[in-house]
Each structure stands twice: as structure tokens, then as C-alpha cells.
Records
---
Amino acid sequence: MAAKIIKGTEVAAQIREELKERVKRLKEKGITPGLGVVLVGQDPASVSYVTAKAKGAEEIGMFEQTINLPADASEEEVLRTVDRLNRDPRFHGVLVQLPLPKHVNTEKVINFISPEKDVDAFHPVNQGKLLRGEPCPLPCTPHGVQQLLVRSGFDPGGKHVVICGRSNIVGKPLAAMLMQKKKGANATVTVVHTGTKDMAYFTRQADIVVAAMGAPKAITADMIREGAVVIDVGVNRVEDPTAAKGFRLVGDCDFEAIKEKAAAITPVPGGVGPMTVTMLLMNTVEAAEREAGLIP
């Protein structure tokens, strides 16, 4: 039997409907959640991401402002802009779109964002709180993965989750999230990566496999056991002369082969991607709720 396709577009739409209600409640208290975005340069992928965030914010009734800086803006100018957003009470969330130009120190900029407004959850203070299981903004892609699992009926609790990839953006924070003694977590987590000798040995034992390797077909059907759940975080461009743009987007999994074997799988595009922006919006709404005293 073919796998259930876990559609991120549908789950994200459901969450956005819930966020609209939460924004409405905040507005009744005289608070409009605000997101401030800093975009340095005009990298096409970054512009596309920022546009999606602005559109999402508008959809749920939030206030959003993108500050465009030229590609040659100095590090000092970027930091000054972040400082202004940190101090501005209209903004509950502050986001600097990555990657930044080479002459700007990314770590320095991330560390300069106020931890309470850090809706990407990249600040070391929030990463430390995440590991300790304390309340903090949750990293958007890992939180999106968790929400997809829980809302699709595949709660990670008591399951063996094998995460393929150890990046600071997906692999490490997702492992920290899923091992917590909390609802929607409580999993046994194994992390495999390019230094793992026999990755398939571990993935074949998994109830849930999360692929975040950054390489097409890194996870093949023979690496997955019958009835496993597969979440594909990867987004890779592969050449395709039949496509209008000359390429198409694929994940890190051999989707066609794995869907004949897995219980459920996310597609690429339309799987984890739509969840990432939605979780960013959720973090901004939660920051406003925290300020309003609606959540601890």
C-alpha cells in the first residue's frame, strides 16, 4: 500500500487559521503582533523568502516591515538597524534574513538580536534554553517537523527517531526538541551524519526518519524499513530540461521508491517548506502574547 502523503501546505493552512484567532484576541487587547525583517542585498532566494514571510504576516493580520539595506551596507549599519528594531515596541519579532554578505559577521548579528524577539531562535540564549527544556522561541524548521508529525497522527512519543544531518538549523535543534520530556516529544533520538560509518544500519531501525542531509537521494528505499514515517527536509535543485526553469526541486529522499514502502512521507515541495514560515509567524504571535501576559 502506498504511503500517506503528509501535506505541509494543508497543515500550515490549519495553523494559520488558529493564528488568525490569536491575533484577533491580541488586537482586542490593543496589541498588534509585529515582525521586523532586515534584508541585506537582493539575493533572489532571500527576496523570495522575505516576500513569503510578509505575505504570511498580512494573511493572519500581523504588522510586518522589511528594511532593505544595500549589499554593501557595513556591518555597523546592519547592527544599528537590528538595535533600532530591538528597541521599537511595535516589533515583537526581529529577523535578519540569511545568508548575509561575506563582509558581515553572521554570528555577531544573530547575537545582537534581543533573545525575546529572536523569532528564528538562532540566539545562543534560546539554543541553551531549548536544550534545557525551558520556554523559548522554537526553531522554525524543527518545530515545523514536530507539528507535521503530531498533527498527522504520528506522535514521536516513545518512537525511535533517526535524524540524518547535524546542522545548527535542523539536525541539532530537532534532536534537542524531540528528546524533551514533553507532549509531542519524548522520543528516543539517534543522530547520523557524514561521519557515521553505516547510516543505513540506524535508519532501518527507525520508526521515524528525518532527512536533512542537503543532497538528493541521500536516503534510498533500502535504508527505510516497511511502515516507517519519513520527513524530508531537503530542498535541492536538479537539472530538468523538461521543466520551464530548466530545473526542479527535490528533497533528500528517493520519494518515488520510498513511498511504496513507508507508512507516510512528506513531498518536496509542499512538505516541510510551508511549515517553516508558519512557525516563524507563530513565534512572533507568541512573543506578543508573552508581552501581553497571555502566556507565561
---
Amino acid sequence: MKILIIGLGSIAKKHIAAIRSIESNASIYALRSQHNAQAYDGITNLYSFDEASNIGFDFAIISNPTSEHKHTIQKLLEFKIPLFIEKPVASSPIDDLINSIKESRILTYVACNLRFLEVMQFLKERVESGNTPGRINEVNVYCGSYLPEWRPGTDFRESYSAKPEMGGGVHLDLIHEFDYICWIFGVPERHKAFCRSKSSLAIDAIDYAKYLLFYEDFTCDITLNYFRRDYKREIEILFDTVTWKMDLAKNSITNSNGVVIFQSEQSVADTYTGQMRYFFDLVSNSEKDSFNDIIFANEILKLCLDYERP
């Protein structure tokens, strides 16, 4: 199997590790922007799309800065190969590409690896089957972490996350939360959102985001930030009989009576392998659709970008 990777940063290296755990003999090529780029772990460097076009890849991974995704997708559509696109799909909506993507009938998958977290899959199954403790009255989602600790040994102010012109901002970096809520509960009837960049981090990119999603029977509150020193990533679901507290870091659900509803030893890091195996299976079976294709991801992006800046 031959795989092309666009962008060779930290997330790309996680995808490479996942690929090699599944198919150790895969030939991996990386499209590099600088001709003096250092070789990485047996990966073949390429320096232009023209050079890459003659190789015959089984699929491509797009993991360069978000602001470059749209151009990269346009170039790779000419290759007519499946596309594995790191989230978010782009830094702005790509409506003008959707018809070309539909006409190409290529497989697309936008990588939201938290869908592969076992506690998330447990919740989705319970909600879809109706096997819950009662009616949902409220859902609260919170994800707070400390951006300066995301990439040890680097200046966080120089990362793409801190630079809006590169597609940075907590609303895009943590689009996972918006994605999995829409995956589990569906797209909301309407929503309201506020985003700011006023914290002590002193960065230009959005560092705080608040979304209110309105469903027929309940409201979902999503809060995201870059400045919380003690990492917290949780979902709270208020049923009419009991509350479930879902801890994504611990891969567990506990109810308000202290009863453990679900617990898994799987780590978030493990989801990258599960996600890649899912995509490998789609490619191997010549599938044309995924459960998070570029069309759905573009709709989620438009919702995330529909906010006010008070």
C-alpha cells in the first residue's frame, strides 16, 4: 500500500504510527514544502504535486495547517484517490468544492477520532436505542486545557493554534465537541454562539467559545477554552430521573448516585489506530461513503463559524 501525507507535524506522526501498527509494510511518502526538509522515520520526501502524481497512491492524508486544506483538497481531487482529512475540514466553508467532490465519487473521511472512544460509542448506542434512564432535559459539554502545554518544547504563540490566519482557534481545534454532539443527537434546530480572545494567553486566535444548541426537547451547552490549567473534558447529561457524568479523559460514565455506568481502559491515544483501521477497511472494500464525509464535516464547520464576538 502506498500512502501520501501532506503535512508532517505532530498529528501526522500519530497517523503514521497508526498506519504502521496496522500495515507495517506500507510505503509512506510525505509532500514537503522545503527541499532541505529532514527525512523522518523511513518516509520518502516529495516536493511537488507533479512529482507525487506519478506514483499511484492508495489514499492521501491531509494534515497540514487548516488554512491550507482547501487548496490541498483541490489539488488531490485530480489524483482521484480516497482522502483522509484531519479535522477541521478547512478554516472556512468549502461549498464551492462540494459539487466537484460529489461528481468525483471519491471516498472522503474527516478525522474526528473521539468518535472511536468507547465511552462515546456506548453513549451513541444508548441514545439511538432509547436505552437511557429517561428523557434528556439538558446536555452540558466542557473542554478546557492549557495551550502552552500542548506541544512541549515549542513556543505556543508560534503554533498554528494561536494564529487565526493559519486556521487556529479553540473553536476549530476542539471542533470534536461540536462534531460528536451532532453525531449522537443530530444537527440542532438552531444555535447561538459567542467567541472571544481576551484571556491571559494574549493570543490573536479565539481562546474561548460558547455554543448553545437548541433541540426539540433539550438544550446543549458547549464550552471550550485554551486556558484551563487542570485539564477537563466532560459531558453531563441531565435525564428526568438521574444525571450521567461522562469523563472523556477516564473513558467512563458515572451517575449522580455514584454508580459506574461504563468504564474502559482504552485511552484517547488508542482511538487513532481504531480510526485508521476503519479507514483502511473502507479503502480495501472500495467504499465510497464514510460516517463523517467531507459534506457533513463542511456543514458542521459552518455551524461552528456562525458566532458573535462580544
